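Feature request disguised as a bug: please show the residue count (567) next to endo-1,4-beta-xylanase in the output. Example input:
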Amino acid sequence: MDRFRQLARATTVVVVVGAVIALAGCTSTDRSAERGTVIDLLQQDWRHMPGVVAEDDALRVSPTAMTIVEQDGGGGQPNPPVNLVGTHLITGGDVELSVSLSEVTADATLAVYDSPPVIADEFRIEPAGLRLTLEGLDLRIAVFDGSPGETVTDPQPASVEHATVSDPEAVLSIRRSGDLLEVASGGETVSSSSLGDVFSSGELWLGLSSEAGSFSVDSFIAEAPAGAALAAAGPVAAGAQPSPDGLQSLADRARPGFRIGAAVALGPLASDAEYADEFVGDFGALTPENAMKPQALSPRQGEYVFDEADALLDLAESKGIAVHGHTIAFTEAMPRWMQELPADSEDERRASAEALIDYVTTVVTHFRGRLDSLDVVNEPFDVDQGTDLQQNIWYRVFGPGYPVVVSQAVHDADPDVRQFINENGADVPGPRQDALLRLALDTNEGGGHIDGVGLQAHVYHLDTDAISADDLETTLDTFEDAGLIVRISENDVTDSEGQDAQAEQYATVLATCLRSEACVSYTTWGVDDRYDWWVDDDGDLQGAHDFLFADGEQTPAYDAVRRVLAD
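Example output, currently without the count:
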């Protein structure tokens, strides 16, 4: 299409926001003393933005269907993508974003966030920000203030308005001055509302998405007036470096080859400098919290969204950090299409088996050579701490021997990745542990390639979940005698009984693991308590205190772990 005609058909959206933060390094053009700094956002980094493809002179946006399914298989909170490791903006005053859209087949959304959303297992915490959705002649203007609201899984905007765009080719302008947001179409104001402190961080994170169609972004400009600071910045983790006195460095000296890891989310790693310094400085292994679960990688059957997982792996590789993949076969965190695969007849099971194996092969092949190890089966047993296999889609399609099928498919796609079955409640001797051992051995006897087991070591209640050194030592000996290796895969410990008790439990688990040749690595299920959230029985958002860092500070548990490694 002729470039001039394409731009003439486009709808232009202009956003003006205020902020208060110092200038960082940038890629920009100073057009004139009057206009100040101008950044062409089309020329910035969009490589790891789900649903966005950078073309020669435009961005093409397609729907991703990204959602967050709850553990019981219900729900499906939308999880629209954000450009986390590409370009975000650092501002020192007012800044204007102008966007020209064309070829909108259904709906087009531009989101501007004060910070990245926090993604938990079952919900997304919506940050403060603004969403503009154009659908036909309707422009929806939704402002979020960052509060959790009544229902975390169904965040509602603090305000929402609809404006009618009489001419789809007219310029839409959204301007913020102080706490006033004004929206105009064709030079006439169609909406005016208060923003409060929505854009107070001095950072602007950008999202482009469509629920049902596609659209093109033909121009995307950020501009600040003369004297105001504006910069395009990348992920803060790029500047973080491993510490010569960090936990992994101590582990290298105490037991070469032993890895100290943590489960990590891309949002804080890309945006929170303290979090990035904590992780990169102290840890030598990374487990993606959610970015490699099935619902994240394949929201729709036959379609794959590898962008955020690839971004995590790129950051890990750039720092010399090993990656443990998590996970392949899992009852939870499955996209709706996978949950609903038919399995009643032989023909249905055959077709569903093909779909599942295609998923395994595609995912493992994509990550081949980049993973040190992988959870090929995750939490296979009853959630009530029983010993029966959950009758999930893998079980319904392949039967109780499904771990053999999955393990073989993984091996065919990547024969070098170490395979694990990961389970909770098997950290101490008992029926659950016996069942895990039998499952691993039976899988290998059936032709699988299981190298070891992951013992999650979650300690939610110290009076019932505490793991003693004697019990863990017996456990490690049991798996070693069976020819299997062990990962402490998801250790976290509550501080409900005090930080000293928390620190002691952390130290006990790590010290016992270090003494056993069968225990090859130790991972905590998170980095910093500021990102440790859960929803209580009343649906209220609660902050937990389970990790080695809290709000950027080392906890007594960190000191205890450090002493174990130093001694």
